[in-house]
Fold this protein.
Amino acid sequence: MSWAFLRDLLSGVNKYSTGIGRIWVAVVFMFRLLVYVAAAENIWKHEHDEFECNIKQPGCENVCFDHFFPVSHIRLWALQLIMVSTPSLLVVFHVAYRENREKHHNQKLYKNPRKIDGGLLCTYLISLILKTGLEIAFLVLFYKLYNGFKIPRLVKCDIKPCPNTVDCYISKPTEKMIFLYFLVATSCLCIVLNLGELSYLIFKYSTKCYLKRHVKKQQ
């Protein structure tokens, strides 16, 4: 899979972000996207082929693998990366709308089309809420699908067509566990950054509005 489009999206978003938003972009790009492409993708590349059960009953190994891994970890991570980055497009589109509107009217309508205020502030806040919600939703989905954030060395399976309870072994469980914890930790870090940026923007513009009202009352 080519990740160039996601890299370009993150680069574009970086132009319009606050300081905390730029840290979020750096975490997503360096500690999630690059780790995914450079290492994690290869670790889970042959997960089905390396899943072994101590019986050769036709179909048994396949149904056991499907039961314990209903969705591939790596594909779910890829979907998570795409989904949590997509809300940032709202900000990019809003800035493009402002710039095109100025060109259409051939006059200066905004002090700075890229400045986070007015309607763009609302769009930015919505994108942060969506990103946070999606991060949490995917963490819950991971937890529910795999019964926790763990990779067992041995799983016992008694699903038909297996004739009895069989032992199945997952390849490189320790290595997979390390990357699983790392990716979950970076996802939690992104949630904290999003909530921090959300709180910062709300506090900043609430204070700004309060000061404006206070100045008007003084006048």
